[in-house]
Amino acid sequence: MILPIVAYGTSVLTKEAVNIDKDYPNLKDLISNMYETMDAAKGVGLAAPQVGLGIRLFLVDATSFKDDEDYAIEKDFRKTFINPEILEYSEGDEWAFEEGCLSIPTIKEQVYRPETIKLKYLDENFKEHIEEFDGIIARIIQHEYDHIEGVLFTDYLSPLKKRFIKKKLSAVSRGNININYKMKFPLR
How far is CA 15 from the centre of its chain? Predict the structure, then answer.
């Protein structure tokens, strides 16, 4: 079932999410619905707060970068992350990439992030993993991780850049946008 994606301005997007356990109600259905929602919206990641749930769960599908010469990944990458915790960020230079977000459609901006991260997480079977990720996969994970921390990519922008996109952000929160997926807009 395709779920509506909540838009910029919805309070769940700015709150830190809570951990869940394996008894979380209908978790397998939720994960399946989130994948269906992400695929329908042509996203590369989706966090539970983006479908209105303040829980520490997100999905990543970097498979679309498999054949991209600049960000090629070795194989299909499609994973579920439950209760993740970033243990380490790489030191040194951060790299810029133009990020967008399903909750903030029509807006893309350059965001700087570390190249590599070490992440502890549970998979959909609640098996614990500690892995290092780099490149585009690390970037997508960091973006989705920010969602469960109540942080949006626009929070990384300079005050000047935020002023330039203020009208666009307002249009998103009011639903004055043209998109091809189901969204839920904040009540005013």
Answer: 14
Pairing of strands 183-184, 5-6: parallel
Give 130's strand partners: 120
Would you say 87 and 120 are in contact if contact means Cβ atoms under 8 Å apart? yes
The whole-model pTM stands at 0.94
Q: For residues 25 and 10, is the Cβ–Cβ distance under 8 A?
A: no
85, two tokens? 């915790």
What is the average per-residue pLDDT within 63-71?
68
| Cβ atoms of residues 36 and 25 within 8 Å | no
Domains: count for the chain:
1
Q: Which domain holds residue 15?
A: 5-184
Catalytic residue list:
144
Positive or negative CA dihedral for 155, 160, 164, 170? positive
CATH number, domain with residue 151: 3.90.45.10
